[in-house]
Fold this sequence. Notes:
It is built from 8 helices and no strands. It is mostly helical.
Amino acid sequence: MRDAVTSLIKNYDVAGRYFDRNAIESLKSYFESGTQRVQAAKAINANAAAIVKQTGSKLFDEQPELIRPGGNAYTTRRYAACLRDLDYYLRYATYAIVAGSMDVLDERVLQGLRETYNSLGVPIGPTVRGIQIMKEIVKEQLGAAGIPNTSFVDEPFDYMTRELGEKDI
Length: 169
């Protein structure tokens, strides 16, 4: 897993270049948002169970067919697996927020997930919607925690939804 700094260094090192103005601005932005990133992670960690529970409730309110007989979250085991997966997405999104890099999502969450879900018959659409709902809830929680700028929170959630979302082939 790389963070924003190591990713930037790697890119410039591979090119054999010194940091230019863009690199310096990128580093400056990352470090300026560092305290807020850590505060966001702290707030998410303190409320993780509630965030996952709210996400599940809202998702199942919007898509009740998921918890009806024959639905992918029908039975206690499947329902629990859905909440477990939402918890994974939240945890890894938090890592990505702190790192300022989406590498951890590629390495630990997204590689092979679409194929795994497809092979198990897990619908991708509700998963994507759940991640979007989670982003909304996280941003509300962070606003309530007094973290004024939460724009950096969008990136990992949007990245996961984009990567998992249906793709035209």
